[in-house]
């Protein structure tokens, strides 16, 4: 891993500690180590906006919303021109259930860099949270054009159709994703969101289980992800949270 090699060369690099912190959460599910690494990065450079932004976003996914919001806001103060840092604040608002603030912040981030497809994802996800389905679909279609129809963009458009109860269109895109998966990576986590929106609980949980086995992208979202609310009371979901070592 590049971050570990960088730390071996110089253990006082806040950038390396930030990268290592991110990877320990997203791929190892080692949240205590992740927290230690973020705090060390910030101690080494309190003005490093990227560390504070990622720390805030990670905290919002596992708990501690007030500290998460404070960190994300401080990151924006340190680097107000960064579209990615502004987008992180929008994501923190989203995890905290402040969907109007999330939408406003994600729009601000996207305005800073209209060509950044992931910022259109953020705007689209915020529209979905506010049940503004046509606007969400339009944002996801923009992202789809910007990315050249990557699996993630196709999946997020399918999710938008599913939440809008346009099941036929969602199913068509699920078929496309199955075809794409033979040659490109498709995250089971995002597929689980589509099935959850379509109220196909068993399929959604099966995809989450697959995501756990392969350390799929975005699995660390599941504890706080409001799109999985219908699964939360299922014992299989709770067992998966336990195995992922989320803090109480």
In short:
The chain is mainly α. About 70% of the residues lie in helices and about 0% in strands. The mean pLDDT is about 95.
What shape does the CA trace take?
Answer: globular
CATH architecture of the domain at 16-86: Alpha Horseshoe
Percentage beta strand: under 5%
Number of strands: 0
CATH topology term of the domain at 16-86? Serine Threonine Protein Phosphatase 5, Tetratricopeptide repeat
Supply Rg: 18 Å
CA-CA gap between termini: 29 Å
CATH-level-4 superfamily name of the domain at 16-86 = Tetratricopeptide repeat domain
The CATH class of the domain at 16-86 is identified as: Mainly Alpha
Number of helices: 14
Largest sheet: none
By helix and strand content, what is the structural category?
mainly alpha
Query: Which spans of ≥5 residues are poorly predicted at pLDDT below 50?
Result: none
Note the run of SSEs as H and E: HHHHHHHHHHHHHH
Helix proportion: over 70%
- Give the overall pLDDT as a whole number: 94
Give an account of the 3D structure:
By secondary structure, this protein is an all-alpha fold. The chain starts with a helix and ends in a 5-residue tail after the last helix. Helices cover 72% and strands 0% of the residues. The longest helix is centred in the middle third of the chain and has 15 residues, at 133-147.
């Amino acid at each position: 891993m590049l971050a570990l090699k960088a730390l071996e060369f110089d253990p006082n690099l806040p950038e390396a500690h930030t990268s290592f912190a991110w990877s320990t959460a997203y791929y190892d599910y080692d949240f205590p180590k992740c927290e230690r690494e973020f705090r060390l990065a910030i101690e080494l450079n309190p003005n490093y906006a990227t560390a504070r932004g990622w720390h805030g976003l990670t905290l919002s996914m596992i708990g501690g919303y007030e500290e998460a919001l404070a960190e994300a806001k401080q990151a924006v103060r340190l680097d107000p021109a960064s579209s990615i840092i502004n987008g992180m604040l929008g994501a923190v608002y989203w995890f905290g259930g402040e969907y109007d603030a999330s939408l406003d912040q994600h729009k601000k981030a996207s305005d800073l860099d209209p060509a950044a497809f992931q910022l259109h994802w953020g705007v689209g996800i915020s529209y979905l949270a506010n049940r503004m389905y046509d606007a969400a679909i339009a944002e996801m279609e923009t992202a789809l054009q910007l990315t050249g129809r990557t699996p993630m963009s196709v999946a997020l458009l399918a999710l938008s159709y599913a939440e809008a109860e346009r099941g036929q269109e969602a199913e068509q895109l699920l078929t496309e994703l199955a075809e794409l998966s033979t040659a490109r990576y498709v995250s089971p986590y995002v597929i689980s969101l589509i099935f959850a929106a379509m109220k196909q609980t068993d399929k959604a949980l099966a995809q989450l289980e697959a995501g756990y086995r392969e350390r799929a992208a975005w699995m660390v979202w599941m504890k706080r992800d409001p799109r999985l609310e219908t699964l939360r009371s299922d014992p299989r979901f709770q067992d998966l949270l336990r195995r992922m070592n989320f803090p109480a």
